[in-house]
Amino acid sequence: MHSIPESELIINNRGAIYHLDMRPEELAPMVITVGDPNRVAQVSKYFDRVEVQRQHREFITHTGYIGNKRISVVSTGIGPDNIDIVMNELDALVNIDFETRTIKPQLTSLSIMRIGTSGSLQAHIEVDSFVAGTHGLGIDNLLNFYRHSYNEEEKQIVGHFTTHTGLDSHFSQPYIATASAALLKHFAQDYHHGITITCPGFYGPQGRVLRLGLSHPELVNQLTSFRFGSHIISNFEMETSAIYGLGKLLGHHCLSVNVIVANRINKTFTKDGVLAVERLIAKTLGIISSI
Ligand code: R1P
Ligand code: URA
What we know:
It contains seven helices and 14 strands. It is α/β, with parallel strands linked by helices. A five-stranded mixed β-barrel has the order 7-12-10-8-13.
């Protein structure tokens, strides 16, 4: 069987995968990802006990239990490039044998839930409200580096989106991936549903102007006005499509929930971002621990 070389699968002296500094037995089957490294402790304070704490660069991991449910919370830092690292390394921890450096014959599916912050693209999705992304639509290009394919609905949404925005070769080829229906169904109450757009930046790629002019100034309006059947674009941030896209290719169940901290249509910003995130964590952990 093909053994993956040391240059491709980097395992440190502790027997841990390089960026996350995690050994296979230190990861739980339910993984929560958060952008902000400080948010890891904000999540794990709800654990009944924490049994593993690791940190390397911006990747902090705590693994512990809520009741009988073993959960890992991992910080990803900001952006799809970090998600490429986190998703590949989480997958390697469960699906590659580190001794033989071979892919295991029996693959394991993780549940991967992002708990993040986001900007709203719809007036009625107000600051401090929660959004569960039905799809991740990426204008960040990450998934285009991997062979991927679409189901019929995904093909139609991404085609319609590309025509609607005119975003193609100049920026990237937009791509799309769908949330885990098995996870999404538990987040029907108290969470808006919509397509989450993932951008490769916070300022220009999300239509923010400080000192620099935009090459595509109509982007925010185009995202707000996009319609495909009952689908609307609810929000944008910087990780979801990469998680959904790589999660689908690797066979994991992924869902991204975000609290709205900025409403880009009403031009409002949350009065208390820490409290907003705290409310999302408490609500989401309550649901996760019961499924
Ligand atoms: C930008 O401020 C960051 O906040 C959002 C974006 O996706 C980006 O990572 O998410 P997190 O709060 O999870 O980091
Ligand atoms: N995170 C983002 O990426 N954008 C926002 O507007 C708020 C949080």
